[in-house]
Design brief:
about 180 residues; alpha/beta; four-stranded mixed beta sheet; two-stranded antiparallel ribbon; 5 helices
Length: about 180
């Protein structure tokens, strides 16, 4: 069963046909129990991310993998990203055995663009998780100088680009099956 979801993200109405799920379901997705490592900034983003978790196997794998890491990722919408960037990830801090990242996603994106951009940035978070030497912004920059290639406003990896494209494809495929 599905429903049409209308969500305001940073003041913008987004409409998407999704499986019928409770808004608070992000707190307890079926495969992982309570999520503590990937933290949407608000209920609207949680609703979108829940839809991504339930409809994209790749999105679900990213979230589940981060749940087994030392990374905590905050995901928020932003009107203030440089140039044409759809998303960015920043190292926030290290506290004890936890490393904190902030992912900012451009507002005014379609639900598919929003979720594929979140997936792209979560892939970057997994790249940081795999590099225990990343303990601050400088060491994160050094990581991306090693594994990435320069882009307009920083560095990019082929894995993150492929991940975003794959999630976009999975979400579009899911949407097309709902229209039949």
């Amino acid at each position: 069963m599905s429903t049409t979801l209308r969500v305001h993200v940073a003041g913008v109405l987004i409409t998407m046909t999704l499986p019928l799920v409770a808004v608070g379901a992000w707190d307890a997705p079926p495969a992982s129990g309570r999520l503590i490592r990937v933290r949407p900034a608000d209920r609207q983003i949680a609703t979108l991310m829940n839809a991504g978790y339930r409809t994209s196997p790749t999105f679900r794998q990213l979230v589940d993998a981060l749940e087994h890491s030392d990374i905590i990722v905050y995901v928020a919408a932003s009107r203030h990203l440089p140039g044409t960037d759809l998303g960015q990830m920043h190292f926030v801090c290290r506290r004890g055995h936890q490393r904190y990242l902030r992912v900012s996603i451009r507002t005014l994106l379609s639900p598919t663009e929003f979720l594929s951009t979140v997936a792209h940035e979560l892939q970057h978070a997994l790249e940081v998780a795999a590099s225990l030497d990343v303990i601050d912004a400088a060491s994160m920059a050094a990581l991306y100088e090693r594994i990435g290639r320069p882009s307009c406003n920083g560095f990019e990896t082929a894995a993150a680009r492929r991940t975003g494209e794959l999630v976009s494809s999975e979400l579009e495929r899911y949407a097309s099956t709902q229209l039949r």
